[in-house]
Task: structure prediction
Amino acid sequence: MKRVQLLVNTLKPEAQYTAMKAGDVLAQCGMTVTEKNPEAIISIGGDGTVLRAASIAARADIPIVGINCGTLGYLNDIEADETELLRKLKTDDYTVDELMLLAVTLHRKDGSQEEFLVLNEVLFSRGASPRIADIHLYSDGVHVSDYSADGLIFSTPTGSTAYSLSAGGPIIHPSLESITVTPVCPHPTASTRAIVFPADSMLMVAAEVRGGENACITVDSAPPVAFCAGDYAVIRKSERHTKIARIKNRNFYSVVHKKFNV
Result:
């Protein structure tokens, strides 16, 4: 590897300092930091920074190297004090995990469409409204369930340890490609269980907030987008993957135990 791009969370002073150290190590190895045709993206921050890099890297078909300057850092491979390990990129001394992505197509009632790539999760919710949302779920054209809840999470196996886990969803090994749907604070009279769908499922969701307010759709760490009555979204497995470069040996169960104490 000769060329890398740095994606830094500039709101974190530690991330800026770590970026300087990383730049020095890369320069010593004869590697170039550039945004033009990089062979990898080095994400320096927390999990949110990796999520920002995910769609960029997937579209360019290049891996992400995560350096943790955050609190949890589940998606990151190395810590801020381990920048010397970046030397292994020069000699291609690393492995690559390919993580499943979701492709979300938002169909507006005016006929327009918006496309999203999702590494962790997409959330359909009541947003800032105090009123409950009524959310309708279909799989391959068949009605699955109706939810009266604060929201509904669609997560990848990678995202199963994020918001879905907090909402009571299962932990899914990242090698198992699937889509988990988890309700957030469902009303007791509505469906309350998470459902795991095969990765080749085509899921469709529609939602409205009681009182005529708009629902919201939130993709990974991006700002929420209005999800209006008459809109619907299709969620399916993307043909693309996010590639994560692993410089250190990483065991999924050890990481889950360390990060989540389970």
Helices lie at 13-28, 47-60, 87-90, 163-166, 252-260. The mean pLDDT is 93.
